[in-house]
Amino acid sequence: MNIPFNKPHITGKEAHYIYDAVASGHISGNGKYTKMCQQYFEERYGFKKALLTTSCTDALEMCAILLEIKPGDEVIIPSYTFVSTALAFHREGARIIFADSRSDHPGIDEDKIEELITPRTKAIVIVHYAGVACDMDRVMDIADRHNLFVVEDAAHATDSHYTGNDGIKRPLGSIGHLAAFSFHETKNIQCGEGGLLAINDERFIKRSEVIWEKGTNRAEFFRGEVNKYGWVDTGSSFLPSEVSAAFLWAQIEDLDEIQEKRKEIWEWYDHYSESWLKDFSFTKPHIPAYATNNAHMYYIVCSSPDERIRMINHLKSKGILAVFHYLSLLKSPFYSLKHDGRELPNWDRFADCLVRLPMLYELNIDDVINEIRGYAALYRSNSNFLSLMCL
Q1: 237-252, pLDDT tens digit by residue?
Q2: Sign, CA torsion 153/156/157/158
């Protein structure tokens, strides 16, 4: 048996659309498929503007530029996240202020945000971990009262939603001022490497196109709005090629089918986890009432780091790759000397104990479930043996 943690799903139409893009003679960025993808996200999820990028990292870097982050500014981000969430703002000179995770979920603890705000705070960046929404009413209320910007790192959160106190269900990425999505090969829909910047504040729309197009107003030129284009602002080459956009379009067309299959796998994991709980101690995913589940990942949180290692090694011995997640940014060689020394106990628990189970479209979930049952039985028998030894 050989079950990888992830295998990029191919719909079968990717090569056809790539061929069409190549045959069109326009394979650099901002062509037919780029426009189709961007229009899809704007219409389905209500973003005021959507721009494809070469990665979620690039989309976050565009956020930092658009917010005019400068040396001395402070940006609050969750401690349990990928390096890109912090790096995009650090590169512009910001001091990163890490907030702890919730006790019931790896996402940012909304109760800890306000105490971290100072006169130098410029933005709050939240991460919808595993596609599960943060409490956006709380976050936006804090931001509004302190005149701060909110960036949604929605790398995991394509097609996931948040229901606010007003009862309205909103797509993640449509609530903050800006949002960044990922289409890396590990995501629900993917193009190998890719991302999207969602702009929800009209103040940023015009400038976002300039930054996206290497600091030029070339997008306006192509639309016939100006008769020539030039260098008008800072920026970089953030837009992907038409080959990537064509690949992504094939995924977008099958988004609902992909989501249905992933949710089916997630629900099976969650159903059987009830029986595993009887045999060994762990915590399963918590989804608040205000959040939907887009089945980006299924994870469990073991009782200790040693328990996590034992479980991962057991599954690996059976040909199943389960993996931990984020390494410590606070204790990294790059950032450890910059950290203010605050304890973040919830973050430590997730960093030390969280295990992600395989989540791929073609997964035969019975194979994984049977081996986890086997591990649970082994755990139970060892526990009984140790109990007898103590008598």
Answers
A1: 999 999 999 999 999 9
A2: positive
Tell me how many degrees the CA angle 230-233-236 measures, rounded to the nearest 5: 90
3-state SS, residue 7: coil
Contacts of 278 (CB under 8 A, 6+ apart): 376
> Which strands form 95-99's sheet, in the order they lie side by side?
49-53, 195-199, 178-182, 149-153, 121-127, 74-78, 95-99
Q: Give 218's pLDDT tier (boundaries 50, 70, 90).
A: confident
- C-alpha–C-alpha distance, residues 271 and 250, integer Å: 32
DSSP E strand stretches across the chain: 49-53, 74-78, 95-99, 121-127, 149-153, 161-163, 169-171, 178-182, 195-199, 282-283, 298-302, 354-357
pLDDT digits (tens, 9 = 90+) for 104-159: 999 999 999 999 999 999 999 999 999 999 999 999 999 999 999 999 999 999 99
- In this structure, the number of other CB atoms found within 10 A of the CB of residue 371 comes to 19
CA 279 to CA 274: how far, in whole Å? 10
The phi, psi pair for 24, rounded to 5°, reads -70, -20
Residue (of 153, 92, 162) closest to 132 by Cα position = 162
Whole-angstrom distance, CA of residue 174 vs CA of residue 199: 8
Going by their DSSP bridges, the two strands 74-78 and 149-153 should be labelled as unpaired
Instruction: Give which of 196, 190, 198 is closest to 171, Cα–Cα.
Output: 198
